[in-house]
Amino acid sequence: xxxxxxxxxxxxxxxxxxxxxxxxxxxxxxxxxxxxxxxxxxxxxxxxxxxxxxxxxxxxxxxxxxxxxxxxxxxxxxxxxxxxxxxxxxxxxxxxxxxxxxxxxxxxxxxxxxxxxxxxxxxxxxxxxxxxxxxxxxxxxxxxxxxxxxxxxxxxxxxxxxxxxxxxxxxxxxxxxxxxxxxxxxxxxxxxxxxxxxxxxxxxxxxxxxxxxxxxxxxxxxxxxxxxxxxxxxxxxxxxxxxxxxxxxxxxxxxxxxxxxxxxxxxxxxxxxxxxxxxxxxxxxxxxxxxxxxxxxxxxxxxxxxxxxxxxxxxxxxxxxxxxxxxxxxxxxxxxxxxxxxxxxxxxxxxxxxxxxxxxxxxxxxxxxxxxxxxxxxxxxxxxxxxxxxxxxxxxxxxxxxxxxxxxxxxxxxxxxxxxxxxxxxxxxxxxxxxxxxxxxxxxxxxxxxxxxxxxxxxx
Length: 460
Known about the structure:
By secondary structure, this protein is mainly alpha-helical. It has one domain (19-453): Up-down Bundle (Growth Hormone, Chain: A), CATH 1.20.1250.20. The protein is built from 22 helices and no strands. Helix 15 (317-328) packs antiparallel against helix 21. The longest helix is centred in the first third of the chain and has 33 residues, at 21-53. The radius of gyration is 22 Å and the shape is globular. The protein starts with a helix and ends with a helix.
């Protein structure tokens, strides 16, 4: 290890102790749990409620669900817009300020969803207002992820960045777990008529309480020293930042990140969203049973993600990610036949295996993507790679899967669709550089050398 690298590593260790890494992780997770609780609450409600209450009755249950999933996709379309806007200003002003704004935005939008009149009451204004609020929700979530994971990644030691920055990722299944738990309790204690009439609204109104808690916790942390140093250079005008600068200097990094995200995002929404539809409509499983099975699977997913993050520190980012992409391509071929058995334990195993495959890709993403971009444009870079992909991946996955199921009356085309997505991600992993243990200060130093070389070349 060079003296320069040793000094950088020592300085980063001091930074970690001074900032209180566990406090940073808690602040990042608190807000992320809240935002994804609200985002996934919509996903579950799309199948259980929105298709029936906010759209005209065509006589086909799948038609209503498909219409609800189309409004669900609006949130994914808004996410990259939020990622671009929040990434730009997050690179300029800081991760903390933008994270506080995002949690308020998503909280207001979700609470308002619980107040919406139905299609029978106001006609097509109902889905129109639902789409508008879904857009605001997606816009806020689009800015959330990049700031939350970078707040942790930029405070983390080099040797354990994969582990520490995987904790905000585990907050995503925790948010889903919370959303599923609330819906499960409400659907269990209420009659089907009461749940459909007003019970589901309680889950949306509860967001106000947890938003206030998450916002308060986030006021107690500060941005990492490495970011504060980079911000001074940006403010001095010596270096650029934002989306345009990322595409100018690191286009390969952005497109590689998109490729990495593609299969992971599709797999997740097939497992946690489309599976609800499949079990409800095809297998004819009771709503409470579906939610209980998902509850257990999300809990396992939450526990496994930090373990996989640690694994990426020990054996490398690439092999772990490659294993997830390859195994993920097999899931659809055995998971849906397992669901067809109508056996609760076998159905739980199918869902859990899918989430374990997903964790192999998902856990290491924050560290991996943070290590691909310099500090001055890291928020923009990771947000672009993560959020833009969601338009053609997660947002369309349930829609495509429902359409394939409706057209072919078989789960095999859905499995083939997932396999194709995993091939894309395998190719991206092949071209990926291994970054395990790298110093973020070394990434910034390499960026500075590249900037100097470009300036020298332009003067010739």
